[in-house]
Amino acid sequence: MGYQISTERQALQATFDIKGVKAAVARKLSPLGLALPSDRNTTSRSNDITLCWIGKSHWLLVAPAEMETQLKASLVPDDTTHDCRVVLVSDVFTFFSITGPQANDIMAIASPLDTRPKKFPENGSTFSELFGIRGLILRQPNGFTIAIEQSYADMVAAYFRKI
Q1: 68 with 109: CB under 8 angstroms?
Q2: CATH dotted code for 13-88
Q3: How many angstroms separate the CA atoms of 4 and 102, rounded?
């Protein structure tokens, strides 16, 4: 039986790993006009930029690759003079979209995380297992975006083809 979903490997994303005290992170991101997510394991979005709050003092900022130079100039990665640390990690992750009316069913196969809407909200984001490897899961309209370490991308793409 086939599932009514579409899985697609996305283009490279500009991705920044941000760690630090919440107030310092808010100051660092304020020039971008991006508010911090309201709760852990949620996202906030502004234009094409997504900010995921994935731990007590840990965030991931994701944007289209063409914004990387602009964001790098604004965020100043590897600057140790602030109360937060920003590291460019664009080359670490491969992103996939999973969309369609049965996207939740596919996520139930791929991950032990309960991604039903009542447990994983519309702005949900967290790290969990995906096919036995660590991956980022983001809820999107009509589905999910997942990010896994790039060396596993071909394997995960093959798993999706078999579902």
Answers
A1: no
A2: 3.30.70.1400
A3: 6
Q: Which amino acid is at 99?
A: T
Helix, strand, or coil (residue 116): coil
Q: Cα–Cα distance between 148 and 126 in angstroms, integer?
A: 12
Q: What is the per-residue pLDDT for 81?
A: 66
Which phi and psi (to 5°) does residue 131 adopt? Answer: 55, 35
Q: What is the pLDDT of residues 51-106, one digit of tens each?
A: 999 999 999 999 999 999 999 999 987 777 668 899 999 999 999 999 999 999 99
> Which residue, 50, 49, 53, is CA-closest to 19?
53
Where along the chain do its domains lie?
6-10+92-162, 13-88
Helices (H), 111-163: 153-162
Q: Which residue has the tokens 């309209």?
A: 141
What's residue 47's pLDDT? Answer: 86
Fold annotation for 6-10+92-162: Gyrase A; domain 2 (3.30.1360)
- pLDDT at position 4 over 90: no
The alpha carbon dihedral of 45, 51, 54, 58 has a sign of negative
